[in-house]
Amino acid sequence: MDYEKHLQLSFTMVRLYQQIEEELLTMVAKRLKLDGSLTEMIELEDGKTTQSIQSWQTRMLNDLGPLRQEAIIEIAKRSQKSMDEVVRMLHQAGYDAVNQNEGIFEEAFEQGLLNIKPPKPENSAALLSILKTYEDNAHRQLNLINSSLISGHQQVYRDIINETVAHTLAGIKTPQKAITDTVKKWAHKGVPTFTDKANKTWSTEAYVTMVMRSMNNNVANDMQFERMDEYNAQYLETSSHTGARPGCEPYQGRIYYRGPGTDPLGRYPHFGSTSYGEAAGLLGINCGHTVYPYIPGLSTKTFNRPNAAENAEAYADRQKQRYLERRVRGFKREERMFSQMGDKALTAEARAKKENEWAKLRSLTKQTGMPRRYDREKIL
Question: Per its UniProt record, what InterPro entries does this chain match (predicted)?
Answer without folding.
Answer: Phage_A118_VSP1
